[in-house]
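Feature request, filed as a ticket because there's no other form

It would be nice if the structure record came with a short human-readable summary line next to the tokens. Right now we just get the raw output. Example of a typical job, pasted below so the devs can see what we mean:
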Amino acid sequence: MTLIDAAWLLRFANGEVMPACKGVVPAWQQLPLEAKVDVTKLQQVTLYEKLPIGVLSYGWASRAHPDPTGEQLQRLVPMLRAILEQDCGLDGAIFGIIWDFMSLPQRGYTTGYDPTHDDRTAYELERFKEGLKGINVWYGHPSVTTLVCDWPMPGGAENAAPIERRGWCIFEKALSSVSKRSSCLLTLSRMPASYWDQSRPPKHTLRYLTQAAGGREPPLPPDMFETLLRDGMAREATEKGSGIRFTNGKDATDICIPQYREGFLRLMGRAEALSYDGIGIGDAGVAQLLSALRYAHSAGVPSLATQLNLRSNQAITDAALPGLAATLEEGVMPKLEVLLIDEIGFEPTEGMAKLVTDLKRSRPSLRVDVCDEPAVW
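Raw output as currently delivered:
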């Protein structure tokens, strides 16, 4: 899997390199050496709580090229600047981007497209297959940033379906929601319009990135994920444009659904901490999280995380707390040492007092850390 240098990608978008492309990203076969991240140098970069790597979740605008007009790259530019400034200090920054079209060998770009056969070499085909197998690791990795490009598709796109209706995009976001650190899943549509109009990242960039992190869902249990896809595909079959689509229906049943279950259980079982702070969930989100924890436990792969962070989710009310206490008392997180949560409305409530009391009684080694002041950015 080739990682694209984010700083090079910015220069490309500005026409400073490969100007003949006019901002239309090249395929893997066309990439110059300087566009590729030096993995040795990347390994020397240390960022707070994350790796210097981002992976795109987005919709292809056409079958032949994901961004034939360059519009999607231009929409991405402010976020790339923000990441480089906030995480890397911009000057001399190294941050790798996984963009499938540039990161894996593409058909039709080795000797030219031929409908009768794939023009890629044996090496390129093997590299493509191995990269495709491993790409889910990047979406699921707790410290790799997923950039959800959920903006409207460019006007006149051959495939104008929003990513909310694309099965693989739904898969990518769902897998990214299982165990990532809260700041490592950014939903770009949540950035305010004023942000995108500026040629340079504004002050308080962290505040904007935090807002983008609020578009994350709690983890979706595999049975709910399967229902979501099957119901969406059924709607689409009944009325085009109303449900979820796959290029190939068998992708959903034979690949996507099984891969999500495998990935979900792997991530739940390996995560050292589960961080859902500041993602904007309320009582329904807590219920979904608890369903996910119970699913993993019943599948024989309980979460072994030692910390559960639910802070900065002000839509949670007292009504969610009995279920939270009861589920943790069931032992779905047997190694849990710390629960981080805010006072409801940052004021003491009977529900929170009871949660603390009940967990102290049933799990005396568990520390419940209740915060009574909002986070300030």
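Something like this underneath would help us a lot:
The mean pLDDT is 90.
The longest strand covers residues 53-57.
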